[in-house]
Amino acid sequence: MRFPMVLRLLRQLFKKPHTNKFPVKYTPSSTTRFFADVHDGKKTICSPVETPQGFRGKIQYEKDKCIGCQFCLKVCPSEAIEFKAEEKKIKIYLARCTFCSQCNDVCPVNCLSMSNEFLLADTDKYSKDLIVE
Amino acid sequence: MKTAEKTTYQLPIGPIHPALKEPVMFEFEVDGERIVNVNVRLGHVHRGVEWTGTQRNPIQILYLAERICGICSYCHPMAFSLAVERVAGIEVPERADYLRVIHGELERICSHILWAGVAAHEIGFDSVLFLTWQMREKALDLTEYLTGNRITKGITMIGGVRRDITPDMHPKIQETLQYYKEIFKKLQHVFLDDKTFQLRCKDCGVLSKEDAIKLCAVGPTARASGVKKDVRLDQGYFAYSDLDFDYITPDIYTGEVHGDVYDRIVVRLLEIQQSIGLIEQCLNQMPAGPIVSEPKPLKLLAKLKNVSGEGIGRMEAPRGEVFHYVKLSAQDAPYAWKVRAPTYNNILPWVPMLTNQQIADIPIVAASTDPCMSCTNRVTIVKNQDTSFLDKEELHRMSIQKTRRLQS
Amino acid sequence: MIKKERLTAEEIIQSIKDMFTTNIQDARIEKRTMGKKKTEFYHLWIRLDKTIFKEAVRHLQSLDPALHFAVASGYDLDDTIELVYSFSLYHGVRHQEISVNLTVALPKSDPTIETITDLIPGSLISEQEKQEMLGITVKNIPKNTRVFIADDFPKGVYPWRRDETGPKKLIRNLHKVKS
Q1: Which is the CATH superfamily of the domain at B49-337?
Q2: Which residues of chain C lie closer than 8 angstroms to A79, CB-CB?
Q3: Which of residues 38-57 of C touch B (CB under 8 A)?
Q4: C125 vs B347: CB contact, 8 Å cut-off?
Q5: CA angle centred on C73, ends C104 and C103, rounded to 5°
Q6: CB-neighbour burial class of residue A118 (10 A; exposed 0-12, middle 13-18, buried 19+)
Q7: Beta bridge pairs of residue B89
Q8: Listed residue (B243, B127, B266) closest to B191, CA to CA
Q9: Distance between terminal CA atoms of chain C?
Q10: Contact at CB, C177 and A126, closer than 8 angstroms
Q11: Could you tell me where the beta strands, DSSP code E, fall in B42-114?
């Protein structure tokens, strides 16, 4: 047929849209009021699509296992890791982290791992949420 | 009142511009609606990547190279890794070679489907844009499952790959491949049988075979003009030398070679089909073994610190030949690193392609070479000291109006 | 276009050595294998004088009229600038392509080289890039403008150089933490 898309578009009218409506279908007129409603339980947020296993999200650091070898500093592509010399532990700045997980691979005691958290937006690059130590 | 002579208008388009996905500066000479001459200027997203590379060690450069481009983000670290492996004499295990092919072909599928949507958008066929980008989601989900992220895969390591594909991952891969085999027929039906595309794209933006060879065009742009240039077949790398496939030129589907936009659509769609077949062959033939030649990254860095020499790495990205030159000189960081993305060779062919075309064809012709750059805003028309602005919406609307005219 | 018969890697090197004798300083073949079937491929590395550079490119083009030019890389050694032009011959038939890299050393006292855009028009952008990045002059280049660097970047500063004309003063470290 000359225009196969037309039939397809008509069929689409009766199908459910593919988009996952995260966090909510339409933008609320007041975001603060919306979050207050969610907190009270009056409205719900549609959850994001599940991340698979092995997803490279926010880095997790087990401080007790760390031996202060500084191997992770050598391989970090964006120099997002800082060594605290007095305690011999590290500090990771998520604002510079590229989520490559190369530090996980190189750590000899496996104290670094990637979680599946990806909702990390913040207004301040150096806020507490964006520094892992 | 007769005009003494006809002059041409100068139409500067850019640097951030309407029809392409990235900043490029064009200076068109226009006579009415017809383009007479084109002058191209680049450099607007120059980030000094090669200089930055000389300040970092090879493992850090892998992640820097990944961020040179979002869509061909797999090819740059892989080509760099090939170059370094050739300098240092690192033998890559066979299983790693096959895994690399699988990831490369998966990226090719994602990139070509994205391009198909963009091409449809430039013509004005937005419903096809949404349809193809929805189809692409399944490939991105598979990439996320195999590598941990949808776009910046981070799967390259010098001497192999970082993650294995274990047998329990095979069912999901098979399911995705089956899905793509079924929708490929739908894609083919929409793109190649729909009259809209044929009316709009045939005999538009023609690049002759001689021009393609002289201007060193690469990738589907060259293959659509009949030049058989494909690094996977010409020289080979990874495990492609063991696999069974051939050059894709438009005469496989249509029987003739014109070198126009329609031929480029044909080549890219057939390549999607070829990629599905290649992934299946790899899964069937994959040998057992290690996935990387040196599992400890710091030992690898120590080894590379003692190596000196130069090497080249060439790879077939979805857009053409990616070329990396690396010179190591027994230090932490390489002495020299040169990156040549495929689009830089495909820019000079724009000149013969756009000459004698109409302004409304600029978006689709430029998009048909699949330039790897990013999107734009306005066009200034200078007419006898009178300037008026054509922004992206206006140029896009002109392109859509032409489609409607042809359809009626 | 009927292709003339293809030479092997050794024959290519021999033909270049025969033509240019003393002006060739070094020529080596790197042969490698890939995959399970151990298919071979060749990379040729030839170092020559800049005086016979253009003739060498012309000779390569006579061996394969569809010569493919990839890119010209360059780097700064102490008193010379070296350019590496990468070509490839014999594309079109599976596993027959041979990569050829020609290294040319230019003294900093006279950093000029002949253009090859009349033989291969596709090399224009690469030659323009070398001019602006390394400060060399390509003689008879058809378009003498900057291609990757903005026009208001200072003249006389060459980003890839490691001597006093390098970009050291223009580097800013954006990530120095202020707090």
Answers
A1: Cytochrome-c3 Hydrogenase, chain B (1.10.645.10)
A2: 175
A3: 39, 41, 43, 45
A4: yes
A5: 20
A6: middle
A7: none
A8: B266
A9: 67
A10: yes
A11: none
User: Domain C9-170 belongs to what topology?
Assistant: Beta Polymerase; domain 2 (3.30.460)
Residue B24 has pLDDT above 80, yes or no: no
Q: How far is A32 from chain B, CA to nearest CA, in Å? A: 32
Residue the block writes with tokens 């120099």: A79
Model-wide pTM > 0.95: no
For B232-267, give one letter per residue: b (16+ CB within 10 A) or e: bbbbbbbbbbbbebebbbbeeeeeebbbbbbbbbbb
List the domain boundaries for chain C.
Answer: 9-170
Domains, in order of start, for chain A: 15-49 (no CATH), 59-132 (3.30.70.3270)
Quote ipTM for the complex: 0.92
Which residue has 């596709």 as its token pair? C122
Please give the structure tokens belonging to residue B90: 């690192």
**What is the least distance, in Å, from the CA of B388 to any CA of chain A?**
36
Q: What is the pLDDT of residues C117-143, one digit of tens each?
A: 999 998 988 898 889 888 899 999 988
Q: Is C13 exposed, middle or buried (0-12, 13-18, 19+ CB in 10 A)?
A: buried
Q: Is C145 on the interface with B (CB under 8 A)?
A: yes
| CA A119 to mean position of chain CA atoms | 5
Cα–Cα distance for residue pair B275/B272, rounded to 1 Å: 5
Give Cα C58 distance to the centre of its chain.
14
Q: Do B348 and C95 touch (CB under 8 A)?
A: no
Alpha carbon distance B248, B224 (integer Å): 8
Query: Over 80: is that where the pLDDT of C101 sits?
Result: yes
